[in-house]
């Protein structure tokens, strides 16, 4: 259509943006009078809502935790010779069996937050790699300005 109407002067081109530019936002230094005071009050209210974390208390509670247990479903191993699938109960040596999903740093932080009521961020948890098999693993939680705490992670089948 465009190739036919414009050359024949049957249509007129109209620019897409005909309105003026939107006004630019004012910086905090440019705020005047009561606007500046409102902005300062909002910042102060937000700072009051964020609770201060007592890292020494969190460190002491983390030191008291010996193991964190995760229950995961085991992947069924296919035995092509027998024509059946092996289950977790068939294999007495479950240490090396693969699991559905994995255990990550965020999973560990969520367990510490939910079950133990500790405000631990996933960036504080150090794990070599995602845990993808049953067994026992080591994990380190490093709180700001404190010594790292070693935790034992146990992944078992259900």
Summarize the structure.
The chain is of the alpha+beta class. Helices cover 25% and strands 25% of the residues.
Descriptive report:
This protein is of the alpha+beta class. The strands form three sheets. The chain has a four-stranded mixed β-sheet with strand order 1-8-7-5. The longest helix is centred in the N-terminal third of the chain and has 16 residues, at 34-49. It has four helices and eight strands. It has a domain at 55-157: Ribosomal Protein L9, domain 2, CATH 3.10.430.100. The chain is flat. It is 25% helix and 25% strand.
H/E order of the elements? HHHEEEEHEEEE
* Through-space gap between termini: 66 Å
CATH architecture of the domain at 55-157: Roll
In the CATH scheme, the class of the domain at 55-157 would be Alpha Beta
CATH topology of the domain at 55-157: Ribosomal Protein L9, domain 2
Q: Which structural class fits the helix and strand makeup?
A: alpha+beta
Number of E-type strands = 8
Number of helices: 4
- Across the major sheet, the strand order is 1-8-7-5
Sheet bearing the most strands, described? Answer: 4 strands, mixed
Mean pLDDT equals 79
Question: Rg to the nearest angstrom?
Answer: 30 Å
**Proportion of residues in helical segments:** 25-40%
In percent, how much strand structure appears in the residues?
Answer: 15-25%
Task: Look at the structure and name the CATH superfamily of the domain at 55-157.
Answer: Ribosomal protein L9, C-terminal domain
